[in-house]
């Protein structure tokens, strides 16, 4: 197998860690805008979160109630400012969820969005249209990583298995830290490192190995390989920008 190739065998203990993925819930009153958001978010975060969405506050409230009754974890609510009134009730139903409000660039002091932010119903807000998709989705990634750290403090999105002192590990650490991806390092000589390699169907002759929480395994990943694994669009951001991001 060539370096950087995704290994077909799945690390079963990682793939089975979470039977129910946390929900990323979107409310956008514009059906076409909702469809675009769900498609983009699913492509970037669908490996780790279940994407759901509604176009009306009423339907959204029904869905949130159903998820609360089913005890489905909601990680983040992304709500159009036209449905800002939903946020107070959403906070009661899912107090642990991050609440992110989408506001139009030309909003005024009388906008319901301002009241929602003033009252603390929204944790964050994003102004649209945004000029840079990568900056927007990097912010989303940070919010979701924050939720993960708070509610699954031992959860590792990635596990790196490598020899102690391997110079390539620092590059992997830098990229994952830059993009707020929780990870763990396991020396290939350690018991845990040997176990992870065995479960992935590999040995210590091909290192470093990056194992995603869903079991996808990549051997000696290049920066583009790693970007794809963490959901960064290399064509959009460009490899030079990715290298610059990792170097900061």
Would you mind describing this structure in some detail?
With 248 residues, the protein is α/β, with parallel strands linked by helices. The chain has 2 domains: 23-151, Rossmann fold, CATH 3.40.50.2300; 155-247, 3-Layer(aba) Sandwich (Glutaredoxin). It is built from 11 helices and 10 strands. The protein has helices at 12-15, 31-45, 57-70, 86-93, 112-118, 133-151, 167-178, 191-199, 223-230, 234-237, 239-247, and strands at residues 6-7, 23-27, 50-54, 74-80, 98-104, 124-128, 158-162, 183-187, 209-212, 217-219. Strands 1-10-9-7-8 form a 5-stranded mixed sheet, with helices on both faces. Strands 3-2-4-5-6 form a 5-stranded parallel sheet, with helices on both faces. Helix 7 links the parallel strand 7 (158-162) and strand 8. The radius of gyration is 20 Å and the shape is elongated.
Report the total helices.
Answer: 11
Strand order of the largest sheet: 1-10-9-7-8
CATH topology of the largest domain: Rossmann fold
| Amino-to-carboxy terminus distance | 32 Å
Shape verdict: elongated
CATH class descriptor of the largest domain: Alpha Beta
The number of domains: 2
Unreliable sequence segments: 8-19
H/E order of the elements?
EHEHEHEHEHEHEHEHEEHHH
User: How much of the residues is beta strand, in percent?
Assistant: 15-25%
Mean pLDDT: 81
Structural class: alpha/beta
Could you tell me the radius of gyration in angstroms? 20 Å
Sheet of most strands: 5 strands, mixed
The CATH superfamily label of the largest domain reads Response regulator
Residue share in helices? Answer: 40-55%
| CATH-scheme architecture of the largest domain | 3-Layer(aba) Sandwich
Q: How many strand units?
A: 10
